[in-house]
Each structure stands twice: as structure tokens, then as C-alpha cells.
Automatic annotation (TrEMBL):
Pfam families: C1_2. This is Uncharacterized protein LOC115756915. The keyword Ribosomal protein does not apply. It comes from Rhodamnia argentea. InterPro entries: C1-like_sf, DC1, Zinc_finger_PHD-type_CS. Keywords: Metal-binding, Repeat, Zinc, Zinc-finger. Residues 72-117, 191-245 form the DC1 domain. The lineage of its organism: Eukaryota, Viridiplantae, Streptophyta, Embryophyta, Tracheophyta.
Amino acid sequence: MEDEDSDPCYDESLDYSHDHALIERNVKKGMYVRCCKCHGPVEGSVLGCKECNGYFWHKKCLEELPREIRHPYHPEHCLVLQESDYGGKVCTVCRPFIRGSYFSCNDCEFYLDAYCASLYSAPEYAGRMFRNGSHLFALRKLERGSQTTGECCDRLMAEPYIFHCVEPNCMLRLHLSCPPFSFPDTVAHRRHLHPLNLDTSLVEEEEDPNDEYYCDSCESQRTSNRPVYCCRECIPNFVAHVCCVAYEVCSLLTFQ
């Protein structure tokens, strides 16, 4: 996978927490290697650990990694950069075992891998969260085609967004289009000029049940008996999945 290692070690003045020296490595094109921060493909001259298998960084990504962060998913405490000890720690956001550097609040057993920390640290995500009792729910965008089982409906569904609890050791996940949410009656959508109204009975009984229905926002097929947002001023109506207006809906949701 790699050519011979280069001699110079990485500048330790960056206060990086890895236990071993990072050296310049050469990764051949076409090998499936990912950066520990951005998860982007790694090839050519990169930084890697000779002792730890599969541990690579883009030079720019490593230089940008802070020693300590404040994050909207854990606003109570600062999160400190740590080096993975492969001891079975799981990222609170994406759930898989952590490989590579991560941020942690050891008092709360809250762990965030470098990728999720950078992806969800933007200020706009702070408005996509709400608390209900002991749960702090955050909106998470899933990879295309991903399926998740919701705790309320117990159904495996492919939706572009879910709400998941980011409290340590809590695995609660909720589909955005399922109870116990109460959706706002009207929202403004960035992809449409007019306000969109919630409609839970868009399909009339006399319509052909074999007809196909599509979302005008994402242009994918939708289920006819699920809540949607639609524009009453446009003919034909502009209709969108609840999920497709997730950012607009999120800050207005109420818990039933």
C-alpha cells in the first residue's frame, strides 16, 4: 500500500496527542485509505503512524485540529483532544468504534470522533437540537440509502434525517416523520417561494392507490399516507417530504 517511509517526523510543536511520532508516508493511488478527520480519500504524501495500522492524516487536517473545543452536542463542558487507545470507545454521534483521534469529556463519558466533531461543530447545528426530559435530541443527516429503526414506530426506514439523543450511553433514535413530534402548521422553505402548509391527508379516497407520488424538493418517490408539506398557491401543488424541510421544521417542533 505504501512506499518507503520518509525520514522527517512530524513537527511535535503542534501539541498533538498521538503516542507515536507521525512520519511522512506515501500512499499509492487507488488504495482505500481514509483521513482520520475528514474521512476523505488519502493518497500521495500524507502523515501516518508507523506503529498504528490504518492511521493517516492529510497534513492540512492535522494542522487544523484544535487541542480543545466547545461543541453544541455537549455544551456543559469543553471537549479535549485524545488519542484512540482502541479500547472500545464509541462515538456518541455516529456510534461506531472510534479509530484515530477523538474529543472527550471523561467526566461524562461523552466521546466524539474527529470527523463528527468537525462536521457538527458549525453554529447552525445548535438550532437543530431540542431537549425533552433527560434526552438531548440532535438532527443528523444520514448517508444516502441508509436505513434506521425508529424507537417509536419500530420500523426500518430510509430517511435522509433522524433525531438521535446525544446524551452519553443513550441509543434513542427517532424518525423525523413519526410521532411523538407535533409538526408546525406552516413553514418557510428555502427551495420554494411560498409558505408550505402541513397536510396529513393529501391523497383523496377516490384516487388510484397505484399512483406514484413524488417529493418536489428531493424529486424522489414518497409514500402517499405520510405527512407532507405542500403549497396551496401553486398549481399543481408543490409537495415536500417532512424530512426535506427538516432544517426549517426542527426549531419549531414540539414534543407530544
